[in-house]
Design goal:
This protein is of the alpha+beta class. It folds into two domains: 5-21 and 121-303, Beta-Lactamase; 22-117, Orthogonal Bundle (434 Repressor (Amino-terminal Domain)), CATH 1.10.260. The chain has 14 helices and five strands. It has helices at 5-9, 45-56, 61-67, 72-80, 87-96, 101-110, 128-140, 160-170, 184-189, 201-219, 222-232, 246-249, 280-283, 295-303, and strands spanning 146-149, 155-158, 256-260, 263-273, 286-292. A five-stranded antiparallel sheet has the order 2-1-5-4-3. A hairpin with a 5-residue loop joins strand 1 (146-149) and strand 2. The two termini are 17 Å apart.
């Protein structure tokens, strides 16, 4: 692991503070012995949350009920608070709605149950095998840039190729340890970040905005919504239009075209995730790999190998 990645990448980072990952939902009253819960005019906390997610997914009560192997009547009673869902039913509904593990935990809490999915720091000894896998992927991608980020684009670690790229564009980074995590989305879109070095910045910015908008719709978390709000508040971001550069749009992938002092670097990215995660932390990890789009870019990165 490159422990200095946060320090050296801080030269182009915006101030973004990741908030507490957990969202608190007020739990329902414990059900009475007969298994029924007192209905309210606004439904139960779980029912309101479930209805909100059903709306986000564009599902009717009947559609969700059929997909979850229950009846529309029972689902209606659950949403109104007239029936209390079992723990198994909560998990089944969460899976049917394709909710992230974090939001499945939120549904369980709203229904009065303990969370089912753990959330631990990546440095936890039990996750050592995952850390080794991440380090291996970063090392194997040298000399090209690779980053490990969380669901809000906060940097967790980076390889030497990533450090070489940022040093080429922004110069040597300060050696002081940053107080806040580096946010790659902010760094790419902000004027004080990498924006001055991105030739096709409007296309790249639009791509990132669409990605964060999609994330916000999928996970429903205030942290993601706050990141989207922050990005849209950056100069020129909210006024972005569709890409119009014919040379760029003909490419099968969106390039990020960096240029400094007459040197051009054309890269495209791929994002990998950990398969079949069973923890919140692991589900939200992303590994972003940058690949060269031409020989001159590949040669430039090769020349930076020390």
């Amino acid at each position: 692991m490159l422990k200095s990645s946060r320090v050296r990448l801080n030269s182009f980072a915006g101030n973004w503070s990741q908030k507490d990952a957990w969202v608190s939902y007020r739990c329902m009253k414990p059900p009475e012995a007969h298994g029924r819960q007192e209905a309210t005019s606004n439904g139960s906390p779980f029912g309101r949350l479930l209805k909100d997610w059903r709306g986000r997914r564009g599902l009717s009560q009947l559609g969700l009920a059929v997909a979850a192997r229950t009846t529309q009547r029972h689902l209606s009673f659950i949403e109104s608070g007239r029936a209390v869902p079992s723990r198994d039913m909560v998990l089944r509904l969460g899976a049917t709605l394709s909710l992230p593990l974090r939001q499945q935990n939120a549904l369980l809490l709203a229904a009065g149950y303990a969370p089912a999915w753990k959330e631990r720091d990546l440095s936890t000894p039990d996750l050592a095998v995952v850390n080794r896998a991440l380090d291996y992927m970063l090392a194997q991608h040298e000399p090209y840039p690779a980053f490990v980020i969380d669901r809000c684009w906060n940097l967790l670690r980076a390889n030497r190729g990533a450090l070489n790229l940022t040093e080429f564009l922004t110069g040597p980074a300060p050696v002081t340890i940053p107080s806040q995590p580096v946010n790659l989305a902010v760094a790419l879109l902000a004027s004080e970040g990498l924006r001055p070095f991105i030739v096709n910045w409007p296309e790249v910015a639009l791509h990132f905005i669409r990605g964060v908008q999609s994330d916000a719709n999928v996970d429903g978390m205030p942290e993601t919504a706050d990141l989207l709000k922050r990005l849209l508040a950056l100069p020129d971001v909210s006024a972005l239009s569709e890409p119009t550069t014919a040379q760029e749009t003909r490419s099968p992938v969106l390039p990020i075209h960096f240029r400094r002092d007459g040197t051009s670097l054309r890269l495209f990215t791929t994002i990998a995730t950990l398969g079949t995660p069973r923890e919140v932390t692991l589900e939200e990890i992303r590994i972003e790999f940058f690949f060269p789009m031409d020989d001159s870019t590949a040669q430039a990165f090769g020349s930076w190998v020390k």
